[in-house]
Amino acid sequence: MRYSTCVSIAEEGPAEMAKALRTALKKSDYAELRLDYLEPEDVPKMLKKAGTMLGHCICTLRPRIEGGRFPGTEKERRDILADISRYKPYLVDVEYDTIRKSPALRRRLGRKVLVSWHDFKGTPQTGMLRRRLRAMSAYSTHVKMVCTAKKPADSSRMLALYSDAGRTKLVAFAMGEQGKMSRLLCLYLGSPFTYVYVSRPTALGQFGLKEIGRYIA
Ligand SMILES: O=C1C[C@@](O)(C(=O)O)C[C@@H](O)[C@@H]1O
To answer: One GO BP annotation here (predicted)?
Structure first.
């Protein structure tokens, strides 16, 4: 079995992001473009630059309220998300709250959506996590749940979710130093990939691409 990585790229200009993307895809199956790090008007420029590489890209436009940098309004963000999906990337990352509240956006997005949810403060109890997984799976076959581990058992609760995933392609792990190993173990439990960085981490506890290579058997 080969395990896949997704290099998270958070550069602040389209030229830099495109360069980082070319480098990342030499060594990684997937890359995440953190398009919220760009000026909104540069997003289409970046998507054009990415060209056929987009088939390996997860496009993310995270709002500030969910830990991202997108500066505009929710309406502007939803319009850009719908535009991004027209370029047909591998997946468009859309937050659970966004997709749940916007049937209009659901109609405009293709089927290739990664429904995501983050908890930057902690890790809820198992019952809540399971209910959330079920609710998220109603919107896509690709679901991502990322919490913050304060102690090792928090990571274990995230990893236990794989036994409830069924046909859902689940990416679930915990951020933070206490969660670091869950980023590796999720691969062995069925996660389609794990997030890594090349130049600088986009989240706490992320492995570097080279570093994780030393752990993967
Ligand atoms: O959701 C995720 C996962 C992540 O937060 C991480 O912890 O590696 C990094 C983000 O860029 C990405 O959108």
So the answer is: 3,4-dihydroxybenzoate biosynthetic process
Q: What are 57-99's pLDDT values in tens digits?
A: 999 999 999 999 999 999 999 999 999 999 999 999 999 999 9
Q: Please tell me what DSSP assigns to residue 3.
A: -
Q: Catalytic residue at 121?
A: no
Mutate to test the pocket of ligand 1, among 95, 118, 158, 212 (most ligand atoms within 8 A of CB): 118
pTM over 0.90: yes
Range list of β-strands (E), 102-201: 113-118, 142-148, 169-175, 194-197
Q: Is 88 a catalytic residue?
A: no
5-214, CATH topology level: TIM Barrel (3.20.20)
Cα–ligand 1 centroid distance for 204 (angstroms): 9
